[in-house]
TrEMBL record:
It comes from the Bacteria. InterPro entries: Transcobalamin-like_C. Residues 22-96 form the Transcobalamin-like C-terminal domain. This is Transcobalamin-like C-terminal domain-containing protein.
Length: 283
């Protein structure tokens, strides 16, 4: 379990924790953190003194800042008192601003190799890797790596306009931007970052890092690793590994093959000169 502020920019807590059979996420938290709740006990209003900027505030003083939690890479669909902890789960709490256009992050990369090994609520639907432009080698390299990390039922096939939102399995789409930019599904997902949680775009020959409102941060990179989902508690999210060119795509694939700590506690990452920068860019 780990706890952060501002989309993973600042770490508060990061430890492996034990639990007892029947424990909820809330039970586990109460033994290790200072918790205050609201709305009947299922809503975490404060962790270690950092409180919601919205709950019980007047319309003149309230700010849209709250605690959100993700299990195995998907934002939870239930309160922390209703999700039963399972062995191997990765639980991430983050305190961040959700103002602007209503910032949402349905799926995140920060629990990798979840959700491909085990997803939300123990889901193991398998994974399909779609590749564009004949990048069979990269897809096979990634498939082998996922299997070595414990993922089951991993396969790959060429991308030919398959649905990226109506999945029955986890999905990964890899390729270069020039190969994918004309696809209508890709265009739609990248056009609404505050809805999809993909806080980057490809313009003017660069990957542009966005802030939580979907605005440009002024920072750029060469490749993107990002995730999206259809809503709370999604068990079949879609990930994107997209580079400006083949070397950048190779770097994105390499981030999953040998992740180190590049992805942990991140909504998504943009690779810039070998450095993985978290997106959205923290305020």
């Amino acid at each position: 379990m780990f706890v952060t502020h501002n989309f993973g920019a600042a770490s508060v807590y990061n430890q492996a924790v034990d639990y007892y059979s029947g424990d909820t996420v809330m039970d586990v938290m109460r033994t290790r953190l200072e918790i205050e709740t609201a709305y009947g006990g299922g809503f975490v209003n404060s962790i270690n003194g950092v409180k919601s900027g919205y709950t019980d505030k007047s319309i003149f003083t309230r700010k849209k800042r709250d605690w959100f939690y993700y299990v195995n890479g998907s934002i939870s669909g239930v309160g922390a008192d209703a999700y039963n902890a399972k062995s191997g789960d990765t639980v991430w709490w983050d305190y961040h601003d959700w103002s602007g256009n209503g910032s949402t992050t349905p799926s995140v990369v920060g629990a990798y190799p979840h959700p491909f090994t085990v997803g939300y609520n123990g889901a193991m639907p398998g994974t399909i890797i779609y590749y564009s432009g004949g990048h069979t080698e990269q897809a096979e390299r990634l498939a082998v790596s996922l299997r070595s990390k414990g993922a089951k039922n991993v396969r790959h096939e060429a991308f030919s306009n398959q649905s990226l939102t109506e999945n029955t399995t986890n999905a990964i789409l890899l390729g270069t931007w020039s190969e994918l930019e004309a696809n209508s599904s890709v265009q739609e997902l990248f056009s609404t970052p505050t809805r999809t949680g993909i806080y980057a775009n490809f313009e003017n020959g660069a990957v542009n890092l966005l802030d939580y409102t979907g605005g440009a941060s002024g920072q750029t990179g060469q490749a993107l690793v990002a995730a999206t989902g259809t809503g709370n508690g999604d068990t079949t999210p879609t990930w994107f590994l997209i580079g400006l060119d083949v070397p950048a795509l190779d770097a994105a694939v390499g981030t999953l093959v040998n992740p180190g700590n590049k992805l942990r506690g991140k909504v998504g990452v943009v690779l810039s000169g070998g450095t993985a920068i978290g997106v959205p860019v923290a305020p």
